[in-house]
Design a protein that fits this description.
Largest sheet: none
CATH architecture: Up-down Bundle
Oligomer: single chain
CATH class: Mainly Alpha
Number of helices: 14
Shape: globular
CATH topology: Growth Hormone, Chain: A
Number of domains: 1
Helix content: over 70%
Length: 405
């Protein structure tokens, strides 16, 4: 059985612990900027939801354009040195946004440009980061390291918005942006402390389009990876993001205020952390096809049930399970991607994960938002759950490789 102590075994390796700590602190700053940027956009546009959608689309479009090329870059260069460059660039963009806001020069088009540039840089940064952290532990701890990496981002998704609210009230939107810029110093310090020997040698240089073609051919020939990516992509595309669904449910069906909304978000975040820690403790034993398929089904069932929760307290465990299911699906997908390709391809294969999470997910919110406006949030959640269930059934019946993985 998994043990709580076993969940944290990768922290015994100093370089992993340093890198994880730096990334976790920076992730909190990133979430602070996400919240402040959304509130600033609404302030500039007098509450325009379309403007928020444009900001999300701007960043998502950069991932669609550059994510696969970014994975090729991550595999062609030393990942630690590449991260030193990308993290510095991201810190500079955050500081620029802070200066533009503090000086009163900020306009919507500037936010759109910064969002696009950030997405472009992250197209190389995220695959490099995702491939570097598991390389800092022995191969048998790779799944544990991947799961702990997931807890850093899930934890930040809880702490970051709360801190953003406090900071915005005290020092304004620009203060959030400057704090995010400062948070990148934690990553840069960690990357300098782990030393150059922490990163595996970069792959043989080759043209980027050739590198992308090699990646796609590798995935095409592996039915497990094809099925896992299809299932995870379907989950993120068809399931409305909680950032879209929960505010509407809270205000139109449950008739509650922002305080209850924050608590509901926290329930989903706690579920995501719990699932990541459980997978970290279990290691490779649960990074398999059967738990992945189970997570898809659990996500569908809980998504369909959340809008029906009456009284409201019933929504808390449902959101906990939904967050856990999404986290488990993402963590298992990442573990399968990294364990089924050779080391020189890990940056590129993680670019597919980046494309799904940062590109497919926001893209799916556009039709979901339209359906919510036409049929309401409950009907939208039910339709989304039905589509995810169909995907689960298709993979269950047609992908023997995934079932036996």
């Amino acid at each position: 059985m998994p043990t709580p102590a076993g969940a944290f075994v990768s922290f015994a390796h100093r370089r992993f612990a340093l890198a994880w700590t730096g990334i976790a602190l920076s992730a909190v700053g990133t979430w602070m900027q996400i919240i402040a940027q959304s509130l600033l956009t609404l302030s500039l546009t007098h509450g325009s939801g379309l403007a928020l959608g444009l900001v999300s689309l701007s960043q998502a479009s950069s991932f669609f354009l550059f994510a696969l090329l970014g994975g090729g870059i991550a595999d062609s260069f030393d990942k630690r040195r590449l991260l030193l460059i990308t993290q510095t660039m991201l810190a500079s963009l955050a500081a620029l946004l802070g200066w533009l806001t503090a000086s009163g020069r900020i306009e919507l088009w500037m936010i759109l440009v910064v969002a696009f540039l950030s997405g472009t840089i992250l197209s190389a940064d995220q695959p490099a980061r995702a491939a570097l952290l598991p390389s800092l532990v022995p191969p048998e701890l790779r799944t544990n390291a991947i799961s702990l990496q997931a807890t850093a981002f899930q934890g930040a998704s809880i702490a970051g918005p709360a801190l953003a609210g406090l900071a915005t009230a005290a020092i304004g939107y620009s203060g959030d942006f400057f704090l995010n810029a400062a948070s990148y110093l934690a990553v840069l310090a960690a990357l300098l402390l782990i030393g150059p020997s922490a990163s595996p040698a970069p792959a043989r240089r080759q043209p980027l389009l050739t590198a992308v073609a090699e990646l796609l051919d590798t995935v095409r020939r592996d039915p497990v990876l094809r099925s896992a990516l299809a299932g995870f992509g379907a989950l993120l595309f068809f399931a409305p993001s909680l950032a879209l669904l929960l505010p509407i449910l809270t205000t139109t069906i449950w008739r509650r205020d922002a305080a209850q909304l924050g608590l509901l978000f926290s329930c989903a975040g706690l579920g995501a952390i719990a699932a990541a820690l459980l997978l970290a403790a279990a290691g490779d034993r649960w990074a398999r096809g059967a738990p992945f398929l189970a997570s898809l089904l659990l996500a569908a069932l809980t998504l369909a049930a959340v809008p029906l929760a009456q009284p409201l307290w019933l929504a808390a465990p449902l959101l906990f399970l939904f967050g856990a299911a999404q986290s488990a699906a993402g963590t298992i997908t990442t573990a399968l991607l990294q364990s089924r390709v050779p080391a020189p391809l890990r940056g590129r294969v993680m670019s597919l994960n980046t494309l799904i999470v940062m590109g497919i997910r926001p893209l799916g919110d556009f039709p979901a938002g339209a359906l919510i406006s036409l049929a309401g949030p409950a009907a939208t959640a039910l339709a989304s759950a039905a589509l995810i269930t169909l995907c689960f059934a298709s993979l269950l019946t047609s992908s023997r490789a995934l079932r036996s993985a």
